[in-house]
Amino acid sequence: MPMPPDAEWNREIDSLVFTPDGHRGRCVVHRLAFRALLGLRQPEPADGLAHFAAHRAAYQRAAARKIADRGLAPDANLHLTSRAVQGALEETASA
Q: How far apart are CA 38 and CA 52, in angstroms?
């Protein structure tokens, strides 16, 4: 499966990593977050990358919200939980 051009899987930290739009820091979503998002006991890197590719806008929205809510610096790194991504997915579905 081809990787989304703006995301990668970092095996050292077992996480999906992407750069939010308009931000210089990196955003991390740990593999365990995909357990809740995908309902898989052992999600693989390809599962996380595919979910990101299919729901890129929700991940970007969740990251933008966290950046704004926390007043993060333009180059600050951040972490998204499954709850943050799920909330953005639900917003997208109801819009």
A: 11
> pTM higher than 0.85, yes or no?
yes
The tens digit of pLDDT for each residue in 26-81 reads: 999 999 999 999 999 999 999 999 999 999 999 999 999 999 999 999 999 999 99
Nearest CA to 59 out of 72, 42, 46, 78 is that of: 78
Q: Residue 24 burial (CB < 10 Å; 0-12/13-18/19+)?
A: exposed
* AA letter at 73: A
Q: At what angle do helices 82-94 and 56-70 cross, to 10 degrees?
A: 120
Assess contact for 1 and 50: CB atoms under 8 A: yes
